[in-house]
Every structure is written in C-alpha cells, then in structure tokens.
Write a structure and sequence with these properties.
It is a single chain. With 134 residues, this protein is mostly helical. It has one domain. 84% of the residues lie in helices and 0% in strands. The protein is built from 3 helices and no strands. The two termini are 36 Å apart.
Length: 134
Amino acid sequence: MATESSPSTRERSIGELFGELATETSTLVRQEVKLATTEMSEKASFVAKKSAWVLVGALMGVVSLMTFAAAIVLLLGRVLPLWESAVIVAAAVAVLSYSVVRAGLTALRHMELRPTETIASMQENKRWVRKQLQ
C-alpha cells in the first residue's frame, strides 16, 4: 500500500515554488514602495527645513536693504552720528543674512535626493530573486 507523503516531507512542486515566489515578490514590492515613501518624506522634510533658513536669510537681506535706504535718507537730512548708526546696523544685518543664506544653500547642495536606501535594497532584492530562480 503506497501512501502519499505529507506536504511537509515531500518536495514542493514548481507551481508551489512559483506561487511562493510571487507572494514573496509582492510583499517585497510593497515593502520597497513603503521604504521609498518614507525615505523621500524624510528628504522632503530636510529640504523644507533648510529652505526655511534660506527664506530667513533672504528676509534679513531685505531688512538690510531697507536699513541702508534709511541710512541714505538720514545721511541727506542729518548729521553724521544718526546715519552712522544706521549703516552699522545695516552692515551687521547684511553679514548675518549672508551667513544664514550660505549655510542653507550649502546644506541643500550636499543633500542626496535619490532614495539611496531603496535603490540598495532593490538591488539586493533583485539578487535574491535571481538566486531563487536558479
């Protein structure tokens, strides 16, 4: 009397293996999409924060220009001390705004926008799938 071996002891069929591979591949793709979404969200958040620094620096530059304009007006109508103080304040604001803008732009310039973790993970998954198909 021949008995069929149980599914745990017999070798799995090619159909079962491909079914398992399809299920695992589907799960893998979902996980990769989630990873890419998370990674890009983090990068977008970083860009938003550094862009805020650039905006602050630009606004400070506008204040600086307004102060210089006030200094010129005061220069024409007043004696030295009043406009001197306005020029000193304007110069200080200009230096500060330049520093803030430069720091923000430098940070943005060095940021990698590609989802590098997702790309590395997908390459690893590609190797795994190829190994499974051998």
